[in-house]
Amino acid sequence: MNINDFITSLSQDKAPAGISSYLQSLWLDGKGNWEAAHTVVQDLEDKTAAWIHAYLHRKEGDNGNARYWYNRADKEMPQVSLDEEWKGIVKALLEMK
User: Fold this and answer.
1) Contact 23, 90 (CB under 8 A)
2) Distant-in-sequence, close-in-space partners of 88: CB < 8 Å, separation ≥ 6
3) Signed CA dihedral, 61, 32, 38, 87: sign only
4) Neighbours of 54 (CB within 10 A)
5) Which tens digit of pLDDT belongs to each residue from 79-92?
């Protein structure tokens, strides 16, 4: 799967089969369901989950909380749009496979 396939899948009712919890969270966010996206990553304890968690709080507008999660992910808060960040995270996760 590539980024274009992932974006196209947002028109479907269900996330693509076999994607990671991280991509599931970003898929839900891409569908406009911030709460469900947050629920997927909030109890995961690794740096990848922290990165997504940071992005979600940045999107929410809670920059203080976002900074905390970027720090846990060993990332700087980006200066790009939320859409660019979302795509960047998705691309990075898809390339991990």
Assistant:
1) yes
2) 78, 80
3) negative
4) 25
5) 999 999 999 999 99
| DSSP string for residues in 3-64 | HHHHHHHTTSSSPPTT--HHHHHHHHHHTT-HHHHHHHHTT--SHHHHHHHHHHHHHHT-HH
Number of Cβ within a 10 Å radius of residue 26: 25
Render pLDDT for 25-44 as a digit per residue (tens, 0 to 9): 999 999 999 999 999 999 89
C-alpha separations of 27 from 30, 72, 93 in Å? 5, 22, 12
Structure tokens at 68: 């905390």
Rounded Cα–Cα distance for residues 85 and 71 (Å): 16
Model-level pTM greater than 0.90? yes
